[in-house]
Amino acid sequence: MKRACTISVTIALTLLATVAIADQSGQAQKSAPGHKSSHEHKAAHGHCDAELEVCFTKMAEKLKAKGWVGVELNRQQDGTLIITRVVPDSPAAAAGLKKSDRIVALNGVPYATQDTAALERAYKTMVPAKTITYTVDRQGRQLDLDIRLAHLPERIRAQWIAKHLLEAHSQPAN
Q1: Of 13, 104, 134, 139, which sees the most CB atoms within 10 A?
Q2: CB–CB of 7/57 below 8 Å?
Q3: Domains of the chain with bracketed CATH
Q4: How far is 2 from 53, CA to CA, in rounded Å?
Q5: Which residues pair with 147 in a beta bridge?
Q6: Which residues are paired to 82 by β-bridges?
Q7: Is residue 80 helix, strand or coil?
Q8: What is the pLDDT of residues 127-147, one digit of tens each?
Q9: 8 exposure class (CB count in 10 Å sphere: 0-12, 13-18, 19+)
Protein backbone atom coordinates (compact mmCIF):
# COMPACT_ATOMS: atom_id res chain seq x y z
CA MET A 1 0.00 0.00 0.00
CA LYS A 2 2.76 2.43 0.94
CA ARG A 3 4.50 1.86 -2.43
CA ALA A 4 1.24 2.44 -4.33
CA CYS A 5 0.66 5.71 -2.46
CA THR A 6 4.24 6.81 -3.09
CA ILE A 7 3.83 6.11 -6.81
CA SER A 8 0.46 7.91 -6.85
CA VAL A 9 1.92 10.92 -5.05
CA THR A 10 4.81 10.97 -7.51
CA ILE A 11 2.35 10.88 -10.41
CA ALA A 12 0.28 13.65 -8.83
CA LEU A 13 3.37 15.81 -8.31
CA THR A 14 4.48 15.19 -11.90
CA LEU A 15 1.03 16.20 -13.09
CA LEU A 16 1.24 19.36 -11.01
CA ALA A 17 4.47 20.32 -12.75
CA THR A 18 2.75 19.74 -16.10
CA VAL A 19 -0.24 21.76 -14.95
CA ALA A 20 2.01 24.58 -13.74
CA ILE A 21 3.28 24.89 -17.30
CA ALA A 22 -0.31 24.89 -18.54
CA ASP A 23 -1.17 27.56 -15.95
CA GLN A 24 1.22 29.91 -17.71
CA SER A 25 -0.77 29.50 -20.92
CA GLY A 26 -4.13 29.89 -19.19
CA GLN A 27 -5.21 26.28 -19.60
CA ALA A 28 -5.52 25.16 -15.97
CA GLN A 29 -8.82 24.72 -14.11
CA LYS A 30 -9.16 26.64 -10.86
CA SER A 31 -11.20 25.59 -7.87
CA ALA A 32 -14.22 27.70 -7.14
CA PRO A 33 -13.79 29.78 -4.00
CA GLY A 34 -16.17 28.63 -1.33
CA HIS A 35 -16.33 25.09 -2.71
CA LYS A 36 -13.86 23.65 -0.21
CA SER A 37 -14.35 20.97 2.37
CA SER A 38 -13.34 21.69 5.95
CA HIS A 39 -10.19 19.60 5.33
CA GLU A 40 -9.30 21.64 2.25
CA HIS A 41 -10.14 24.90 4.02
CA LYS A 42 -7.90 24.01 6.97
CA ALA A 43 -5.09 23.01 4.64
CA ALA A 44 -5.46 26.19 2.58
CA HIS A 45 -4.71 28.19 5.71
CA GLY A 46 -1.80 26.14 7.01
CA HIS A 47 -0.46 22.68 7.39
CA CYS A 48 -2.65 19.59 6.90
CA ASP A 49 -2.46 17.27 9.91
CA ALA A 50 -3.40 14.10 8.01
CA GLU A 51 -0.66 11.68 7.01
CA LEU A 52 0.28 12.14 3.37
CA GLU A 53 -1.05 8.76 2.21
CA VAL A 54 -4.29 9.13 4.17
CA CYS A 55 -4.83 12.64 2.85
CA PHE A 56 -4.11 11.55 -0.72
CA THR A 57 -6.54 8.63 -0.51
CA LYS A 58 -9.32 10.69 1.11
CA MET A 59 -8.99 13.50 -1.39
CA ALA A 60 -8.93 11.11 -4.36
CA GLU A 61 -12.09 9.36 -3.12
CA LYS A 62 -13.88 12.60 -2.30
CA LEU A 63 -13.05 14.24 -5.62
CA LYS A 64 -14.27 11.20 -7.57
CA ALA A 65 -17.71 11.95 -6.15
CA LYS A 66 -17.53 15.69 -6.87
CA GLY A 67 -19.64 17.11 -9.66
CA TRP A 68 -17.90 19.34 -12.21
CA VAL A 69 -19.37 22.49 -13.71
CA GLY A 70 -16.39 23.62 -15.83
CA VAL A 71 -15.84 27.25 -14.89
CA GLU A 72 -13.14 29.36 -13.31
CA LEU A 73 -14.46 31.83 -10.76
CA ASN A 74 -13.49 34.89 -8.74
CA ARG A 75 -15.37 35.63 -5.51
CA GLN A 76 -16.58 39.20 -5.17
CA GLN A 77 -16.81 41.13 -1.90
CA ASP A 78 -20.61 40.74 -1.91
CA GLY A 79 -20.23 36.94 -1.97
CA THR A 80 -21.25 36.45 -5.59
CA LEU A 81 -19.02 34.66 -8.08
CA ILE A 82 -17.84 36.08 -11.41
CA ILE A 83 -17.13 33.57 -14.17
CA THR A 84 -13.68 34.30 -15.56
CA ARG A 85 -13.58 31.32 -17.92
CA VAL A 86 -15.97 28.69 -19.23
CA VAL A 87 -14.17 25.46 -20.14
CA PRO A 88 -15.04 24.40 -23.71
CA ASP A 89 -17.21 21.26 -23.96
CA SER A 90 -18.01 21.45 -20.23
CA PRO A 91 -21.40 21.23 -18.52
CA ALA A 92 -21.20 25.02 -18.05
CA ALA A 93 -20.72 25.56 -21.78
CA ALA A 94 -23.62 23.21 -22.58
CA ALA A 95 -25.87 25.11 -20.14
CA GLY A 96 -25.04 28.48 -21.69
CA LEU A 97 -22.92 30.02 -18.92
CA LYS A 98 -20.72 32.82 -20.21
CA LYS A 99 -17.57 34.61 -19.14
CA SER A 100 -18.50 37.64 -16.98
CA ASP A 101 -21.77 36.09 -15.76
CA ARG A 102 -22.24 36.83 -12.04
CA ILE A 103 -23.48 33.74 -10.19
CA VAL A 104 -25.80 35.00 -7.47
CA ALA A 105 -27.39 31.74 -6.25
CA LEU A 106 -27.00 27.96 -6.26
CA ASN A 107 -30.28 26.01 -6.22
CA GLY A 108 -32.06 29.12 -4.97
CA VAL A 109 -29.60 29.81 -2.14
CA PRO A 110 -28.00 33.25 -2.54
CA TYR A 111 -24.22 33.39 -2.37
CA ALA A 112 -24.52 36.67 -0.46
CA THR A 113 -26.38 34.88 2.35
CA GLN A 114 -25.14 34.71 5.91
CA ASP A 115 -26.68 31.21 6.10
CA THR A 116 -23.53 29.22 5.45
CA ALA A 117 -25.32 25.99 6.43
CA ALA A 118 -27.76 26.48 3.53
CA LEU A 119 -24.86 26.96 1.10
CA GLU A 120 -23.12 23.85 2.45
CA ARG A 121 -26.31 21.83 1.88
CA ALA A 122 -26.48 23.20 -1.67
CA TYR A 123 -22.83 22.26 -2.30
CA LYS A 124 -23.49 18.71 -1.14
CA THR A 125 -25.96 18.30 -4.00
CA MET A 126 -23.16 18.90 -6.50
CA VAL A 127 -22.51 15.30 -7.56
CA PRO A 128 -22.01 13.83 -11.05
CA ALA A 129 -25.20 13.40 -13.13
CA LYS A 130 -27.16 15.71 -10.79
CA THR A 131 -28.72 18.85 -12.21
CA ILE A 132 -28.14 22.07 -10.29
CA THR A 133 -29.48 25.54 -10.99
CA TYR A 134 -27.29 28.61 -11.02
CA THR A 135 -29.03 31.96 -10.92
CA VAL A 136 -26.85 34.35 -12.88
CA ASP A 137 -26.92 38.06 -13.45
CA ARG A 138 -26.06 38.72 -17.08
CA GLN A 139 -25.94 42.39 -17.96
CA GLY A 140 -28.62 43.23 -15.40
CA ARG A 141 -30.95 40.33 -16.28
CA GLN A 142 -31.35 37.37 -13.93
CA LEU A 143 -31.42 33.94 -15.54
CA ASP A 144 -31.83 30.48 -14.02
CA LEU A 145 -29.58 28.04 -15.84
CA ASP A 146 -29.77 24.29 -15.25
CA ILE A 147 -26.43 22.47 -15.35
CA ARG A 148 -26.10 18.70 -15.46
CA LEU A 149 -22.87 18.04 -13.59
CA ALA A 150 -20.17 15.76 -14.96
CA HIS A 151 -17.43 13.82 -13.21
CA LEU A 152 -14.41 15.94 -12.35
CA PRO A 153 -11.88 15.27 -15.14
CA GLU A 154 -8.89 13.17 -14.08
CA ARG A 155 -6.40 15.90 -14.99
CA ILE A 156 -8.12 18.48 -12.81
CA ARG A 157 -8.53 16.03 -9.93
CA ALA A 158 -4.80 15.27 -10.07
CA GLN A 159 -4.01 19.00 -10.21
CA TRP A 160 -6.09 19.78 -7.11
CA ILE A 161 -4.62 16.87 -5.14
CA ALA A 162 -1.05 17.72 -6.11
CA LYS A 163 -1.55 21.40 -5.25
CA HIS A 164 -2.89 20.45 -1.82
CA LEU A 165 -0.04 18.01 -1.19
CA LEU A 166 2.57 20.59 -2.11
CA GLU A 167 1.00 23.47 -0.18
CA ALA A 168 -0.28 21.72 2.94
CA HIS A 169 2.19 18.87 3.40
CA SER A 170 5.52 20.44 2.50
CA GLN A 171 7.92 21.17 5.32
CA PRO A 172 9.49 24.62 5.52
CA ALA A 173 13.20 24.70 4.75
CA ASN A 174 15.47 25.23 7.77
Answers
A1: 134
A2: no
A3: 2-66+152-169 (no CATH), 67-151 (2.30.42.10)
A4: 7
A5: 132
A6: 74, 102
A7: coil
A8: 999 999 999 999 999 999 999
A9: middle
